[in-house]
Amino acid sequence: MIEEIITSGRMNPEIDPVLHAWGWEIPLYLFLGGIAAGILIFSAYFTLRGRQDELPIAVKWMPLAVPGLIGIGLIALLLDLSHVWYFWQLFTNIRWESPMSWGAWTLGIIMPLSLVWIATWIEDLFPKWDWKYEEIKTAVEWLKSQRRIMAQILILLSVILGMYTGILLSAFNARPFWNTSILGPLFLASGLSASAALIVFFSKSEAEKRLFTRIDIILIGIELFMIVHLFMGHLAGTQVHIAAAQMFLGGPYTVPFWIFVVGLGLIMPFILELLELKHKFVPAIVPVVLIVAGNLMLRFIVVDAGQASRWLY
Fold this sequence. Notes:
Layout: H1 2-8, H2 25-48, H3 56-61, H4 66-80, H5 99-119, H6 122-125, H7 134-145, H8 147-170, H9 183-202, H10 206-235, H11 239-246, H12 254-277, H13 285-308
Helix pairs in contact: 2-4, 2-8, 2-9, 2-13, 4-5, 5-8, 8-9, 9-10, 9-13, 10-11, 10-12, 12-13
C-alpha cells in the first residue's frame, strides 16, 4: 500500500481492498496530528501577537506535548503499514501530487522545529535551567532572536499538517465519502478546537480561559457549518455520493455520528462553554472530555465510513 500511495497519491481498484485493513492506527494518527497542529498554530500565532506572557499555557507549556503527540502518531502509522521497513522511502521521495509525501515531509520538518521551538521557552518555564555548555546557551539565545521567523514557518507547516490529515483521505478517489475537499478544513478546525479545549482545561488564568473558550465556540460553529456543507455537497452529487451521505441519514452511521460526534462532541460543549462565559458553574473536565472524545470519534467514523462507501461497477 505505501509504495502505491508514494507513487500516485491516490488509490486504484487493484489495491483498494487493502483499505479494509485500516483499524485504530490511522484514526489515532489523524487525531494526534490534528491536535499537535492546533497547539503549534496557537503558540506561534500568539507569539507573533506578543502575548506569550499573557497566555503562558497556550504559547509556552502546551508545545511541550507536541513531540510526544507526533511520535505516538507516527508509531501508530508505522503499525498500520503493510511494509514497515519501507517507511524511509517517504523521506527519500518527493511526489508533489501525493498527500502522503506532503505529510511525511511536513512531519519531518515540524518534529525537529517543534523541539527547537520548545528550547526557546525552556528558561521561561524553568528559570533555574542549566544548559551546562555555554555554546548551547549561546545557540538558544540566537534562536530566541529568530522566534518570529520560526513562528511564521510553524503556522504555515501546522496548517498544512492540520489539513493534510483530511486531504490524505480525500485523495482516495475510490471512496466516495472521502472524495470531498471539505475534509481538510474540517479536520483542521477540529484539531484547533480540541487544542483550544485542552488549553482552557490546563490554564490557570481566567483571561486565558475566557479567550480560548470564545475561540473554541467559534471553531465549533465552523465545524458544524462544514459538516452541513459536507452532506449538502454529497447530496448534490452523483448517486454514489448520495448513497454515501445516506449512511449518515438513516443508515448505520446515523446514531454514532449525530449523537456522539455532533450532539455530545459539538453541540453539548458549545452550550456548556456559552454557560461558562456567562459565569455559570460548569465542571472544567466535562467540555474538554466531550470535545476531545468527539474529535477522536469523528476520525474513527470518517475513516470507517469511507471504507464502507464504494463506487458501483
